[in-house]
Amino acid sequence: MNTVVLSWRYLWARPLAAGLNLLLMTLGLGSITFVLLASHQLDRAFERDLAGIDVVVGAKGSPMQLILAGVFHIDVPPGNIPLADVQALAKHPQVAQLIPLSLGDSFRGFRIVGTTPAYITHYQATLAQGAIWAAPMQAVVGAQVAAATGLKAGDRFEGSHGLGGGGDAHGHTPYTVAGVLAPCGCVLDRLILTATESVWKVHEDMHSGDTPLDKEEREALEAEREVTMALIRYTTPLAAVTFPRYVNSSTGMQSAAPAVEITRLLGMVGVGTRVLQGFGAVLLLTAAMGVFIALWSAVRERRADLAMLRMLGAPPWKVGALLLCEALWLALLASALGLLAGHGLTAVAGWFLQADKSVVVDGWQWVPREVWVPVAAVGVALLAALLPAISAYRVDVARLLNAR
Amino acid sequence: MIETLGLRYGYPGGAGLRFADVRIEQGGTLLLRGPSGSGKSTWLALAAGLLTATEGEMIVAGQPLRPLGGRARDAWRAGAIGLLPQKLYLSDALSVAGNLALVYYAAGLPVDHDAIARTLDALGVGELARRLPAQLSGGQAQRVALARAVLRAPSVILADEPTASLDDVACESALGLLRQSAQSCGATLVIATHDRRVAEALPQAAELIFSSQNGINPASMGPGPL
User: Does the beta-carbon distance from B105 to A403 stay under 8 Å?
Assistant: First the structure.
């Protein structure tokens, strides 16, 4: 028999109290784990998607909408911009790289994005099978899209009009899957990529109906060609000062700096994260009080047991250690269960987000900051147990000996 | 062997107890007699090293208690003293055998399961080893507590009112077991009691008579042989 075993026995001698305290602590630690995991992964996803994009240029409207639509693909774009203007921007001396994006169609809720292969190389994504498109109406699908729809190289599919799914099908202009991307943990995972020309072709064919276009009509359409937005990397950081002003004042387009908009967004969403974290902290505090009360009443109820140990010759520190060890048991059990619950909850949230074709959150990922969960649990439990342990340390044996 | 010289104990707050000198040879029996609150339990606590005398010296099992520090006193008590308190203090979290194992835990020793089984058998409660204290009758619980007291063959057994709530038959058997257990390990037996039946059953025992007067309790040696 040793302190570890004995404290375990003492803990479960009162199963209801022990179970309730364990539940309280588990809830607190679980919600903290969830917030840690989810916020870490969302931050990471944001960082990854934003990397190397200095400014997004698109139609006038809400700059945040432009960023959400263009970088994270979780909002509809404000409108389209003329291809000619974008081509002019590409020649601007402060622009190092310009990736055009054309939105408008989707396949089973996954967006079809007309772009250039530079979009794929920008995120350093690699192909799991097939190749990048060589001609219009060929597509490369992201890993999550492939997993959800079963598309593989060589398959054909029809896009439907609109970003949400359920729009009219573009029946007579089907796409052929040229390749499938390996998972990159970035926004490409849930996109279908194709050449910009494909998007033009689909829509020009749609507008023309069944009658073939004559040369004049086609030229007119080509002159009016548009893209939805352009992701731009600067040649010099100094461009951040002048380039957005140039776009906003000298062209009919607007520029939005992702860094600025995301800071603004996280400022708004951050309130939610902080509320969640606050909830977790309150739960943990409640749990700590629970542990304190449990151990305190345990000391009162077990005064006799502890006194008997002293009568049998156990030194005071051993009696105090017994209670601390009981608190440690609670902390360790609650940490294990709390981490499990937090990961489980994140996995469930991730499943819902994935079904929503939104950000990828993985429940079975280990985040370094999680080591603070057991640390917090042990700290809280020890703190809660300290006073009872001291009381046990000082238990007045002689007086208890007189008890009838 | 127990010997006291000019023993006094003052409770914080003023009330003081003065105890008559005692000398009991190893293996002898001492009765502490007197009404409740006359200082018998205090004497027991002093003998067990749970309290420290304010004056005088007490030598228990050859060990002068005054010079012993807290830690040394705990260690000494674990080896030399078997305590049978009036309230038995059996832990409900543990089985009978587990309660006895606490003796080794408290002393920081590996548990001797054979000794536990032997001692329980000797006291006729061997088959109760796996029961919880809540499932025992009063008499069984007292036997278990006695087994706990004599488990490591102490030099001195201190029993506080062991017959308080027992009928005559149970009283006789309890005293018989106590004496038998003390004899089998050669222990000095000290019984604090206000029960006349104990003195009648143990006519050979030395007696220390306690009385209460003006808050001061001049204990005196009784008629028994020293």
Answer: no
Residue A291 has pLDDT above 90, yes or no: no
B222 vs A235: CA distance, rounded Å:
108
Chain A interface disruption, residue of B32, B36, B60, B87, most A CBs within 10 A: B87
Q: What are phi and psi of B198, to 5 degrees?
A: -65, -45
Phi, psi at residue B136, to the nearest 5°? -100, 150
CA proximity to B97, closest of B74, B114, B82? B114
User: A397 phi and psi, to 5 degrees?
Assistant: -70, -40
Alpha helices in A68-165 (DSSP H): 83-90, 118-122, 143-149
What pLDDT is attached to residue A301? Answer: 72
- Upper half-sphere CA count for residue A29 (Cβ side, 13 Å): 32
Local confidence band at A113 (pLDDT 50, 70, 90 cut-offs): very high
* CB-based contact A401 B106, cutoff 8 Å: no
pLDDT digits (tens, 9 = 90+) for A215-254: 777 777 777 888 999 999 999 888 888 999 999 998 889 9
B87/A403 touch (CB, cutoff 8 Å), yes or no:
yes
The secondary element (H helix, E strand) that includes residue A261 is helix A258-311
